[in-house]
Design brief:
2 copies of one chain form a homodimer. Chain A contains 6 helices and 5 strands, in the order ααααββααβββ. Chain A is mainly alpha-helical and 186 residues long.
Amino acid sequence: MSLTNILNLVDSIGNLLRSEEKKFLQPLGLQPIHLHVLMYLSMCNKYSNNPAALTKYLGNTKGTTSQSINVLESKGYLVKQKSKKDKRIVKLYLTEQATEIIKKLSFEDSEDFFNDRSMEITENVLTNILKSLQLSNQSMTFGICKTCDFFIDEGDGFRCGLTEEVLFDYEIDLVCQEHESELQDI
Amino acid sequence: MSLTNILNLVDSIGNLLRSEEKKFLQPLGLQPIHLHVLMYLSMCNKYSNNPAALTKYLGNTKGTTSQSINVLESKGYLVKQKSKKDKRIVKLYLTEQATEIIKKLSFEDSEDFFNDRSMEITENVLTNILKSLQLSNQSMTFGICKTCDFFIDEGDGFRCGLTEEVLFDYEIDLVCQEHESELQDI
DNA sequence: TATTATAGTATCGACTCAATACTAACAATA
DNA sequence: TATTGTTAGTATTGAGTCGATACTATAATA
């Protein structure tokens, strides 16, 4: 029972998921990287749906990211829109065509497969592993809004302590590139 | 607490590991796929260190695998050797140069980070997730020798029930392409 | 022996990716 | 306001991966 074992398992599951992804994407003429872009955009918030955040998330160069985006745009999976606040920034929005693909690839929960307590512990361990890896590599944390240190619950609503903006209910479960937090206890 | 959450975590950790891998591999002139080949060869047994098994494991075509192997061979990371039993089969062996790279990339265990019971449960849940994914996709299981249904403990030694061959101690922790097993209880 | 199946290779075109150089927009300062 | 530097993103090009196809060599089978 060691961290190495767990990381090897994570890697094996990842390999398998990617291998299955490939079979699914082939007929659509898409590459794995394109699906990762779509997945990211489907779960990130309004501060994080731009090429720069994608570049950090994917670990590619910005030129490479730019090309991946162009491919997806030309195939109708996303649309670009210049930010009005800062005209250098491009906002990326998924099309209906893209969200349908993502829906097909999401897993239906088989709740009866493991007991709740085991799932909870597993989720906690993995969350902490992810965070400690992110910390030790000085990479962006890209966590979920509501788990961020900047997140403020005002009782009658939510607010981001960094941008000072009000957050709608649906936004607090999305991934943010500005996410910051300490490790949780288990 | 759901399977989807856990798979998303697995995916995120996988993305991060790959992103870090890339930074490490860049100066060596290697691609991620090459590292996966080396990793696989470092943990597979004598029935599984051939291009065909690699092809199944990686989910690529055999032509693609052949090219990846050639790149690694030309850079001195592995050597080929024709099987004497079956002259169609090529055995792949890692060089010293390759094992050094793998050593650098393996994680040192930080045992104090999580408690043993949590780690054990996590490992178990992930193992079962992996197995059920493998089953539902009819993909090769590629499990560890000693967890295989063909594995025989004879008291004074070990044996493979499929090939009938005697197994040395160091072999029973290696990955085998012929691995078969049922799901474990948790 | 003839046929079929298996293991692996060679070649080529499509495509990804990194590197480089570039433009446009913003920010800071004098 | 003009200057300088920074940030966000794009365009181009060359190296290299990958998949498809066609191929050789060996083994298994009828």
